[in-house]
UniProtKB/TrEMBL annotation:
Its cofactor is Ca(2+). GO terms for cellular component: endoplasmic reticulum; extracellular exosome; Golgi membrane. Involved in the maturation of Asn-linked oligosaccharides. Progressively trim alpha-1,2-linked mannose residues from Man(9)GlcNAc(2) to produce Man(5)GlcNAc(2). It is found in: Endomembrane system. It holds the Pfam family Glyco_hydro_47. This is alpha-1,2-Mannosidase. InterPro entries: 6hp_glycosidase-like_sf (IPR012341), Glyco_hydro_47 (IPR001382), Glycosyl_Hydrolase_47 (IPR050749), Seven-hairpin_glycosidases (IPR036026). Residues 148-178 are annotated as: Disordered. The active site is at residues 268, 401, 510, 535. The lineage of its organism: Eukaryota, Metazoa, Chordata, Craniata, Vertebrata. It comes from Origma solitaria. Gene3D superfamilies: 1.50.10.10. Its main location: membrane.
Length: 643
């Protein structure tokens, strides 16, 4: 017995079902009744299955729609046995009383396919007529579109947060015409520095004012991140250079991209970029700065993935891989680097409502609190793998400086609520006074460096910021020693002024000694340079705010004139290699901190105190002002932005 071939819905043929003798070789003989019954059962089961398949299997024609631009064409099942026709690979159903409609449909499809082919052919011909450059430009435009789309996705608005009290964003114009003139001079210098960077170094990190081209160093990685633009923004704003500010904002909006394969310094990027962007945001209210700051901060977070949570010094912005400077003691991280993140990271958590940033810096603080400190001093090096100190060097200058500054400023920035930070600052300063601060034979107070059990009687230009720090921390000091710390600040300011006054150019050297008859003078050739650093002027400004002693404005004016005379070139401002030489040579670098700090502090020195009052603003270590936030001691949970 042979059944006819069955055609299932799919159109694929099933093998013929042979239920005859060949199907059951062991039963050539007559089949018994029970066997016949079984056979009948199997046969009926099979027929039921076929019927079931016919009626209940889903009709693919109802939902198979090919998205080839043939919007309305449904591709039905193929049943060539019933007159289905194959057109260029697609099958059109034509059946029964719908025959006419289907024929029309078929015709429409045929025309559409023909038209599509012709169009594609035309486009290909057009493309071939275009030059290679034109084609490349078109590809680039398409790429840009994609990048813009991605950027839009990345720039999602952040949750709204109530802004802190932003007091004292005003012109600060002094009434005294002489002071006004000095202030205008500083503004003119800012314009000269900016305009030349704008012309010759735009988009590069810094400017080479003599070669008149862009400049960069390894702290910014290998890509053009416009460090000068970001660092200078708030100075431009404060000085009322609004067109320049807008130019900077536009560049940042369009070009500042952090998805680059570039290994940057976590510390430098934090203080210059995140600090600069946050300050620009608070001053101007422009969201773009906040968004960029948060994007960048996200790129720095992988640096904290170390066994201890002490971040690496450098991180690759793209891969997130971190490492330390090769020169740092036994693979250590640097105190002044991992200890100078607190202010910016607290603001990031405040603005985003995301505690991740706050937790990172508080973790560092807790870890430091638990550690033994030789003589109560913090060594400059800490190994992020083992959590142990490296070499026992302590400095209030390079490698240590802003760690102490940020302890004090964390307290100030929290509206004096973060008493834990204040205590750490007080303890550290007591140890520093005991072990590092000395008076020279000539009566100059200086801060030396502790190196493996002995005091090096050398002070760096960087260390001169401490005069301002002592004055800033005087109010609220332990045992009410405010007068003492203000006095200490004044003494450091005096010493640092001497380091300027004892040079030929009236500009301070990088480091100076108090040893073997030498007082506040550089001895080695490689300590004689001045690279437009701000620290001495920074201290003058703090001392001016706290004492209003006119000598600080006088000293600031001396420095302004010296910079203008010896560092100014037609292409901007340059550092000089020897402040003791009457014919100095230039280093040909206009540092971004010259615009961020040096010129800002000078401008503030000749402005009224109600411009950015110190009760409401705290300046980060790159002179970017951040507003005071009223925060609880160790938590930000009071912030309504937290969910
Ligand atoms: C600035 O980038 C910062 O002030 C930092 O804390 C150390 N020094 C430079 C300028 O000298």
């Amino acid at each position: 017995m042979t059944t006819p071939a069955l055609l299932p819905l799919s159109g694929r043929r099933l093998p013929p079902l042979n239920l005859g003798a060949s199907a059951f070789p062991h039963h050539r003989a007559t089949l018994r009744l029970s066997e016949k019954f079984i056979l009948l059962l199997i046969l009926s089961a099979f027929i039921t299955l076929c019927f079931g398949a016919f009626f209940f299997l889903p009709d693919s024609s109802k939902h198979k729609r090919f998205d080839l631009g043939l919007e309305d064409v449904l591709i039905p099942h193929v049943d060539t046995s019933k007159g289905g026709k194959n057109l260029g690979g697609f099958l059109i159903h034509g059946q029964g009383h719908d025959e006419h409609r289907h024929r029309e449909e078929e015709e429409r499809l045929r025309n559409k396919i023909r038209a599509d082919h012709e169009k594609a052919l035309e486009e290909a011909k057009e493309k071939l007529k275009k030059s290679r450059d034109e084609i490349q430009a078109e590809i680039q435009t398409e790429k840009n579109k994609v990048v813009q789309e991605l950027k839009k996705k990345d720039s999602k608005p952040l949750p709204p947060v109530p802004l802190p009290n932003l007091i004292g964003i005003n012109s600060g114009e002094p009434a005294d015409p002489d002071i006004r003139e000095k202030r205008n001079k500083v503004k003119e210098m800012m314009k000269h520095a900016w305009d030349n960077y704008r012309q010759y170094g735009w988009g590069h990190n810094e400017l080479k004012p003599i070669a008149r081209k862009g400049h960069s160093t390894n702290i910014f990685g290998n890509s053009q991140m416009g460090a000068t633009i970001v660092d200078a923004l708030d100075t431009l704003y404060i000085m009322g250079l609004h067109d320049e500010f807008r130019e900077g904002q536009e560049w940042i909006d369009k070009n500042l991209d952090f998805s680059v394969n570039s290994e940057v310094s976590v510390f430098e990027v934090n203080i210059r970029f995140i600090g600069g962007l946050l300050a620009a945001y608070y001053l101007s209210g422009q969201e773009v700065f906040k968004i960029k700051a948060v994007q960048l901060a996200g790129k720095l977070l992988p640096a904290f993935n170390t066994p201890t949570g002490i971040p690496w010094a450098m991180v690759n912005l793209k891969s997130g891989v971190g490492r330390n400077w090769g020169w740092a003691s036994a693979g250590s991280s640097i105190l002044a680097e991992f200890g100078t993140l607190h202010m910016e990271f607290v603001h990031l958590s405040y603005l985003t409502g995301d505690p991740v940033y706050y937790n990172k810096v508080m973790h560092i603080r807790k870890l430091l609190q638990k550690m033994d400190r030789p003589n109560g001093l913090y060594p400059n090096y800490l190994n992020p793998r083992t959590g142990r100190w490296g070499q026992h060097h302590t400095s209030v200058g390079g490698l240590g400086d802003s760690f102490y500054e940020y302890l004090l400023k964390a307290w100030l920035m929290s509206d004096k609520m973060d008493t834990e930070a204040r205590k750490m600052y007080d303890d550290a300063i007591e140890a520093i006074e005991k072990h590092l601060i000395r008076r020279s034979n000539g009566g100059l107070t200086f801060i030396g460096e502790w190196k493996n059990g002995h005091l090096e009687r050398k002070m760096g230009h960087l260390t001169c910021f401490a005069g301002g720090m002592f004055a800033l921390g005087a109010d609220g000091s332990r045992d009410d020693k405010a007068g003492h710390y203000l006095q200490l600040g004044a003494e450091i300011a005096h010493t640092c002024h001497e380091s300027y006054d004892r040079t030929t150019l009236k500009l301070g050297p990088e480091a100076f000694k108090f040893d073997g008859g030498v007082e506040a003078v550089a001895v080695r050739q490689n300590e004689k340079y001045y690279i437009l650093r701000p620290e001495v002027i920074e201290t003058y400004w703090y001392m001016w705010r706290f004492t209003h002693d006119p000598k600080y404005r006088q000293w600031g004016w001396e420095a302004t004139q010296a910079i203008d005379k010896y560092c100014r070139v037609s292409g901007g401002f340059s550092g000089v290699k020897d402040v003791y030489s009457s014919s100095p040579t230039y280093d040909d670098v206009q540092q971004s901190f010259f615009l961020a700090e040096t010129l800002k502090y000078l401008y503030l020195l000749f402005s009224n105190d109600d411009l950015l009052p110190l009760d409401n603003w705290v300046f980060n270590t790159e002179a970017h002002p951040l507003p005071v936030l009223h925060l609880a001691n160790t938590t930000l949970s009071g912030n309504p932005a937290y969910r």
